[in-house]
Amino acid sequence: MTPAGSAGVAVLLVTGRAAVQRLREAFSRELPRRGEIAYGLLQGLASAAEVAAEVPAEVYDEVLVVRAAPADHAAEDEAFEVHVHGSPFLVAEIARRLDPASGPLRASSGGGSNKADFRERALALVPGAPSVLGARVLLDQAGGAMDRALQDLRAKSPAERRATLAELARRGRGLERLFRETTVAIVGPVNAGKSTLFNVLVGADAASVSSEAGTTRDALSERARLGPWPVRFLDTAGERDLSLAAAAGDARALVEQEGQRIGADLSSRADLVLRLVSALDAVELPEPRAGVVVLLTQAARSHGLDSSAWPAGAVSALEDPDHARRTVEGSFCEALGLDRSGPLWTAGEAVPFDRRSIEILDSAAGLSEVTDTVLDELARSL
């Protein structure tokens, strides 16, 4: 019923006993009476095996269902308008699944093609995508970008096929952090500027800042972005020796010591550790190692506001927050091997967005010959 093109809401007309029965089974509430409207969820229908295993129904959309009697249908025919969100792929998918000729709404587990699964997996990830760019990439994959890329391979030479498959896998590895948060723990001694940098990176005064040592006694967690990359930053308690005070029963020392333990545990499980070292205290920087970025920090009280007077490589989140943020972003990308040289993605490009798809494409790219049969199997495997 909705004209072709983009729209915030689309309206589907469901008529015929079989189609209405599918709507009745998929709608989370009783269908409305004539002239009434019902709000609810549109769900997939489970196979017998899934019902027996108590697998929850997959939710496709929040919808409004209106019972109508269109003039071009007999009065005894049931007719319903289903108002859904206007994503073209979502509309097409719901229409297909309400069509009795399309088979079960949710296929039972077993053999067969996984081609639709790739699109469905992409669509299922869109609501929880931690970045706008990630959501856009996933929507393109849900709309068939990978199908088109694999079809285009058939016109290419064997060497071009292998190169294209390798490029698809490389693109997937380069963009996979768009689809999940990267955890970055900020660690270091007390008064190294961890909380100040944390506030700059998350864009809010989330952490208390003070010159008093031990102000941060627990780990704080906030979501933010470094460029297009979704990141969860952790601000941890400052490192210092509290063993004597804790042994003497000092309550504050015991609380801070527990905060240090929590911070150490979280940083051990983080994707990346940003270790801050105060330029005032740095006699020798820690040895670089995988998963750890060392950042030299400088306080204004030591060298004034002129950044040219700071020690080489030092940053100050207080005096020059933009420089500090750029430095962290550059170190983040370098440590994780993220490309900053050009556009990350162009609309319409195929992207294997999960590890399984990347590995399948990598394996295919390593074959001595990528035949049409291999491409057929690849389409089924994804």
Describe the structure.
39% of the residues lie in helices and 17% in strands. It is an alpha/beta fold and 382 residues long. The chain has three domains: 8-98, Probable tRNA modification gtpase trme, domain 1 (Gyrase A, domain 2, 2-Layer Sandwich); 118-176 and 358-381, no CATH class; 180-336, Rossmann fold (3-Layer(aba) Sandwich). The protein has a five-stranded mixed sheet, sandwiched between helices.
List key phrases describing it.
39% helix, 3 domains, alpha/beta, globular, four-stranded antiparallel beta sheet, Rossmann fold, Gyrase A, domain 2, 382 residues, 14 helices, five-stranded mixed beta sheet, 9 strands
Helicity level: 25-40%
Unreliable stretches (pLDDT < 50, length at least 5) are 47-55, 72-76, 103-116, 209-216, 300-305
Q: Identify the CATH class of the largest domain.
A: Alpha Beta
**CATH superfamily name of the largest domain?**
P-loop containing nucleotide triphosphate hydrolases
Question: What fold name goes in the CATH topology slot of the largest domain?
Answer: Rossmann fold
Per DSSP, the total helix count is 14
Total strands: 9
Order of helices and strands: EHEHEEHHHHHEHEEHHEEHHHH
Number of domains: 3
Overall CATH architecture of the largest domain: 3-Layer(aba) Sandwich
What integer is the average pLDDT?
A: 76
Largest beta-sheet characterization: 5 strands, mixed
The Rg value, from CA coordinates, equals: 28 Å
Q: What best-fitting shape do the alpha-carbon axes yield?
A: globular
SSE-based structural type: alpha/beta
Quaternary state of the chains: single chain
GO molecular function, one term: hydrolase activity
Enzyme class: hydrolase
InterPro entries: GTP-bd, GTP-bd_TrmE_N, P-loop_NTPase, TrmE/GcvT-like
Domain GTP-binding protein TrmE N-terminal: 2-99
